[in-house]
Amino acid sequence: MKNVFLKILSIICFLIIVATGSYVSFRILKNIAPKTFVRETSNMNLKSPSGTVVIPQKVYKNTLPFDRLYNVIHSDKKVVYYAFVNSPSGNSKNFNIRAGLDKENLNYYYNLYPDNISQNQNQKCRNKSEFCAQNYLIKNCTDYICIIHPLRREFIKIPFENYSEFINMANKLKLW
């Protein structure tokens, strides 16, 4: 009887986690340590699209392994990165991006890194530099959804307001 109760309780907990969307945070956890870049998700022979921005070498040099966004610029896949504030508007953006990636089955091609920042959060690099991934990405991607290609050290910005444009671009850039 006790075993049946524990099984039912674990199933209920699992359903609550899935229903509330808490399972999505596990995607970020698999991005903890950089892995070998997944080459089947990228064709290095393809030309970068227009509007691509090169991430300066200084960003890589000043971002240490213990910095908060180190894993974003050293990811094993392309990364969908966006900074948002925990508010109804920010949470809606977060939901729409996740739903779009899930609906289009794009999770194989992209690691998702939503960066929940507070409006007054003081961004400091751990090595005391002002030019690390954390500052650079928050400065460039606060009003945009950024698709980052860590191996090419490039990213492209898509305005937050246009989710359909983001999904279309993410589909086009699957093998970029």
Element layout with pairings:
Layout: H1 2-20, H2 25-29, E1 53-54, H3 57-62, H4 70-73, E2 78-84, H5 88-103, E3 110-116, H6 133-141, E4 144-149, E5 154-159, H7 163-172
Parallel strand pairs: 2-3
Antiparallel strand pairs: 1-5, 2-4, 4-5
Helix pairs in contact: 5-7
Uncertain residue ranges: 21-33
CATH topology: Glutaredoxin
Identify the strand order in the major beta sheet. 1-5-4-2-3
CATH architecture: 3-Layer(aba) Sandwich
* Proportion of residues in helical segments: 25-40%
Distance between the termini: 54 Å
Number of domains: 1
| Backbone shape | globular
* Total DSSP helices: 7
What is the mean predicted local confidence, pLDDT?
81
* CATH top level label: Alpha Beta
- Counting DSSP E segments of at least 2 residues, the number of strands comes to 5
